[in-house]
Amino acid sequence: MARSASESATGDAGDAGDVRDAGDAGDRPASPAGPSVSGPARAQTGPPAGPPADRPAGRCATAAGSPAGPSVGPRPGPPAVAVLRQRLPDTRRTVAALRAHPSGPALGLLLCAVLAGAFVLVTTVSTHRLWGVLAAAGYAVAALAASRHSAARATALAAVTTALLPLAVLCAADSAQLEVRVVEEAARDLLRSGTPYDTAPAEPADYNPYLPAMALFGIPGALLGLDPRWVFALCFLAALAYAGTLPPAPTAPKATPTPAAPKTPRVTAGALTLLIACPPVAMTLAVSGIDLPVIGLMALGLALAARGRPGAAGLVLGLASAMKWTAWPAAAVACALLFLRYGRGSAGRLAASAAAVLAVCVAPVAVRDPGAFAEHAVAFPLGLADVPSPAASPLPGQLLATALPGGDVVAVTLLAAAAVAMALSLVLRPPATVTAAVDRVALGLLAALLLAPATRYGYLLYPLVLSGWFRLVGADLGWFRPAGSDIRAAGSDIKAAGSDIRAAGWRGPSSSAGPSPPGAGWTAWRQPRRR
């Protein structure tokens, strides 16, 4: 028996055929010759050569290709956007196919070795050059191991030789990017004077462009001599691992369960090692790591929001927002996600908890010395301070700020316009799943990367990790979809199916026509009931 429209509405989003069959949900009287045929079976068998004797041939749906009248087949496919989304390759399956191919892992690791070697030739930073040399050798060794051992062992070897080993070597050599030293000095200032900001900065090394919570990662170094990069890496990996193993949330008030949803996702060691072995992640982890904990907390906060835990999500996103400005879009997107799926109360709880954490971490420092806070955390990142920022990658915002008179104001204005556009998109089309949420955050951060007057290529790590991690582990935490949109889509399909039937030339039996006459294999069609 055909599925009802409500059942079709709660089906998997990718099952376009189930949605199209929603128009077939009307009652179908069974003929004496046997049960009625519906769905794909009807399309294969088709009606008999002609309609019953008391019905005109021109007013009955006939088989495809029959001269008696037009055919009533399934509706055309979904819209073009849905088709493109369905045909986009699944990252997890693509990576699994490459790793399963006999020569796939070895070729991929060899390509990474070539890229690391080329990076050595083009970079002018000594720390980057040292990482490139070590990473090129590590990827080459891992590629050789992939030709003789399993892909999992080769990936783990690549993670060790290209990220952890270079990190240990650079820490032993006391070689790091400037931001690592900035965090260490900020922690010392915080412990000494209660503020992580220098009151009289004179050069770029004196500026701390981060929010006060970032100095917490330098406290182990100030007290125990531990390099902050180890703390960055531990926080990053722990947050991502937990974000991919959260248990399913209960059914949301504004959501309907998806029958085809998997159970609790699992994050294997292979997923983490593959992420660590990715060249941009491996290099950032070894030479700096300043953005890694922010990315990990952003991913964890969005995952908690998608699972219906607004309080925990607000605490995590509030901590990330108290570390760096780049985490603020994630908090806004998480609020929109909760509002769509769990209602206004859940979104309000997330906003309240995030604001509380942000106030506790930032307000005391900002009140203690407002001028230093504005100079370090606002003016310097935007390139508006007296000392120019070393973040000067040749991207559109930076080029505008340097090539045009008053270009910094133009770049900041465009950046504000992009923020307003993102806010409007959250109001008009909020994300419904965690992958949609991380994609929205990645798009907003990419726009900020392009338009900010002081920026660098390293910020591309944000959209790369946020958009790739949940796809890599296969943990699409958006297992529930808003019921209203599904019901509206099913209603549109039912109306369209009724239009197709009426276009075939038959408006259904009249109330005085009585039961449908017998006909071998023939099913009487009726219009969908009007509400």
Automatic annotation (TrEMBL):
Regions that span the bilayer: 106-124, 130-147, 231-249, 269-287, 294-319, 325-343, 350-367, 409-429, 441-462
Source domain of life: Bacteria
Coiled coil ranges: none
Main location per the UniProt record: membrane
Region (Disordered): 1-80, 503-531
Subcellular location: Cell membrane
Bilayer topology term: Multi-pass membrane protein
Composition bias, Basic and acidic residues: 17-27
Keywords, comma-separated and alphabetical: Cell membrane, Membrane, Transferase, Transmembrane, Transmembrane helix
Protein name: DUF2029 domain-containing protein
Native source species: Streptomyces katsurahamanus
